[in-house]
């Protein structure tokens, strides 16, 4: 059974800010979710830094839909080897001249609501430079 509830991992998300500070990094500045309105309160609670200098979008916005630019490519990876290779390429892009590597990362896995047991990762999505990768 799949779930959109976050109770099982919110405590772990709250620890990310502490880890970032411990290793000298800035606070979280952005979080990506497929359910912005539904996840808003939990995400803001886990990452209070997201409330800094924010101008909320009105509930019934007439802003245009966000689509991937035509210059972006979508790559589908189907093996652990392909995923590891892609992450190695991304990690190798970090250098003294380019110390900040920005990656958007998303994962999904099944969770049994009765037992709390979760299955293996079912989906990973990565956005880096001008490529979106799905596995």
Mean pLDDT figure: 81
Q: Pick out the low-confidence regions.
A: none
Q: Describe the sheet with the most strands.
A: 4 strands, mixed
SSE arrangement, N to C: HHEHEEE
Description:
This protein is an alpha+beta fold and 135 residues long. It folds into two domains: 1-64, no CATH class; 67-135, no CATH class. 27% of the residues lie in helices and 14% in strands. The protein has helices spanning 10-22, 36-46, 80-92, and strands at 73-76, 104-108, 123-128, 131-134. The chain has a four-stranded mixed β-sheet with strand order 1-4-3-2, with no helix packed on it. Helix 1 crosses helix 2. The radius of gyration is 17 Å and the shape is globular. The relative contact order is 0.16.
What is this entry, summarized?
With 135 residues, this protein is α+β, with helices and mostly antiparallel strands.
Characteristics:
3 helices; 135 residues; four-stranded mixed sheet; 27% helix; alpha+beta
Q: Topology, please?
A:
Blueprint: H1 10-22, H2 36-46, E1 73-76, H3 80-92, E2 104-108, E3 123-128, E4 131-134
Parallel strand pairs: 1-4
Antiparallel strand pairs: 2-3, 3-4
């Amino acid at each position: 059974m799949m779930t959109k509830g976050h109770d099982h991992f919110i405590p772990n998300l709250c620890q990310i800010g502490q880890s970032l500070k411990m290793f000298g990094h800035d606070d979280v500045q952005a979080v990506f979710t497929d359910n912005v309105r539904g996840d808003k309160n939990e995400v803001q609670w886990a990452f209070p830094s997201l409330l800094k200098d924010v101008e909320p979008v009105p509930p019934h916005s007439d802003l245009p839909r966000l689509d991937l630019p035509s210059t972006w490519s979508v790559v589908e990876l189907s093996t652990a080897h392909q995923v590891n290779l892609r992450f190695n390429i991304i990690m190798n892009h970090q250098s003294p001249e380019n110390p900040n590597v920005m990656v958007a990362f998303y994962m999904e896995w099944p969770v049994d609501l009765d037992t709390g047991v979760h299955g293996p990762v079912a989906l990973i999505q990565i956005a880096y430079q001008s490529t979106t990768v799905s596995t």
